[in-house]
Each structure stands twice: as structure tokens, then as C-alpha cells.
Design goal:
By secondary structure, the chain is an all-alpha fold. It has helices at about 5-10, 15-65. It has a domain at about 20-65. About 85% of the residues lie in helices and about 0% in strands.
Length: about 70
Amino acid sequence: MVFDSWQAFIAMGGYGFYVWLAFAISFFAIAVLVVSGLRARTKLLHELVKEQRRQQRLTQRKKEVS
């Protein structure tokens, strides 16, 4: 498609509202998925570190008791 001006590009032949709305919704959905995934990863890493520290404490206590 060739457009004569930026205004014609934004209007998209009368379908601009639907085209740009679809882009905005898609971008928002992808952004939400990325942020959600990063938060879940961070939470999982924190829980993993916490569990490793717990295991180290248990191992240390077993050594002290023996």
C-alpha cells in the first residue's frame, strides 16, 4: 500500500480506528504477558534461593547434632 500522506496512513482508508485499536490491544496483551512472565520468574528465583538457604541450614544443623 502506498499512502499520499501521514494522515492517509493513519486513516488506513477509513479503517484506521480498527487497525490501530487492534495494534494497541495486541501490544498491550504482549506487554502484560512479558511483565507477568518476568514477575513469575523473579518470584520463582526468590523462592529457590529461600529453599536453598533452608536446605543449607538443615544440613548445618544435622552436622552440629552429629
